[in-house]
């Protein structure tokens, strides 16, 4: 999945600030935003309370993830018949490597098994399995208490097959629960993240290189991270070869990389501060700045079978039940985990919105993140060509964050399995800009934004951020915005009003997180740059290893908005990115203090209201001529013909 010639032009060089995925955060008690409005310095939680909320969120996410895992495995077990042979069982274990051992006992007594009991098996496992079989035979689902063994967590599960022909029992490895807990501690920044020194990066006060030390997760709230020996420079005119040689000599240069308008210089001996001073004194640049680190907070358009442009529901979508709700039709999908866990979709009017549109095959939403599990069964057919900008090979997810974000947008709806995404149609473009630690540089993020734009993304989701504003990143944002892309970003998980970037750039739609009671999520960042809020608490979605996990964080809120932007564009492809953002703001449900406020922006997004507004523009955006002109204009922006830079 590498790019074409256009990409090579951008890739000719290299650079670096780090962005971190804003991962999961927490929920719990209701903390109303309204009564705190006007208090810019605090959202009413002190550090200890914030930490307590975050720990509770991590615990809840882990527990919910264990339940999702158990429920999915039960479904797989139940769907087996007692006549399934060993080969079929082994295939099941191949798809679900967390199923360590499975056996079927037919009513007649015939036994089929696959896999191996952990630690070679012993009497304790056998006793649990026999108990599970006896419960299952009586028609009860059996789930054991978690068993800890050799660093892993297991449960024993037993069910009766759906056709009543026998029982299926097994030993399930639930390492995903520990992993979610561990990752969430980083993403909610309960622990210092990323580890100091990982990239030769020091923590700094925002927009300065004054060193501070990050000792606790709390310190992250005021920290930026940058490369010690690097600086990003945009010159007023492109340096000649001779000038570039002189610069490299002056700075004891190890390398220089170019992306877009900027250069990233690496010195063998000079530190960022000295490098910046040198460039400012000698070269009068547009800007010279540190190369920051960003942290997770979380083209080709291949035409699939065609459908109406607006993706209107049709009979081919199958067994979806409609129910009357507030006078409008609502659509309830059959995905296994939907009704019990996906509070976030009905909470924002998604079910009623689907009666208006379920998306379009033409829409591509880029997920700039840790990659995506490309063959996850609930994302099958929903992945467009992507790219890995932080390593070799495919943009596979080695963290979990990106796969979770992708599922919120596009997990296959109404396939009886796993979860439902917000859009039934359209595809995810996986752009891996964060590495196995969940962090990436300004360079990789800027590179990802430009790559996605050049390869046809309609929307870019950025569940990542840093408290430093980098002109270098802002250039890339403007590049995408000027070409019609809708950019959506998470505000961050430090419960601070310090503006985070890219969310706080004016071209970017900034998303705060709410819980199931429409309260501000205790961890969610806030400020006057927030555009809207979306659900971020205990959100169920896809996870690597063909699994499902519940995570919390503004990283989970942002993809709800990215998906909505895609649905709006499906309803009316002629809308500009600015108009799509306006529709999402104007149709948001006001929360907290009346009108726009620092916790919810314009309010919590509403899919139904937004799609209704988009339909109205489709009906009134007068006539063929205007539409024709807009399409030409959009093409001109996208491909640059005749455009002024
Ligand atoms: Ca599904
Ligand atoms: Ca409000």
Terminal CA distance = 28 Å
Q: What is the C-level CATH assignment of the domain at 315-632?
A: Alpha Beta
Mean pLDDT over the full residue set:
82
The CATH superfamily of the domain at 315-632 is known as Peptidase S8/S53 domain
Shape, principal axes of CA atoms? globular
Indicate the proportion of strand residues.
Answer: 15-25%
User: Helical element count?
Assistant: 16
Report the uncertain regions.
1-17, 23-42, 196-219, 298-319, 323-327
Structural class: alpha+beta
**Which value, in Å, is the CA radius of gyration?**
25 Å
In the CATH hierarchy, the third-tier topology of the domain at 315-632 is known as: Rossmann fold
| Main pleated sheet | 9 strands, mixed
Q: How many strands appear in the DSSP assignment?
A: 26
Bound molecules: calcium ion
**What is the helix fraction of residues, given as a range?**
25-40%
Can you describe what's shown?
The chain is α+β, with helices and mostly antiparallel strands. Among the domains are: 64-180, Beta-Lactamase (2-Layer Sandwich), CATH 3.30.450; 315-632, Rossmann fold (3-Layer(aba) Sandwich), CATH 3.40.50.200. Strands 1, 8, 9, 10, 11, 12, 13, 19 and 21 form a nine-stranded mixed beta sheet that branches. A seven-stranded parallel beta sheet has the order 17-18-16-20-22-23-24, with helices on both faces. Helix 2 packs antiparallel against helix 5, helix 10 runs parallel beside helix 13 (554-571) and helix 14 crosses helix 15 (607-620). The protein is globular and about 85 Å long. Bound molecules: calcium ion (2 copies). One calcium ion binds at residues 335, 378, 411-412, 415, 417-420.
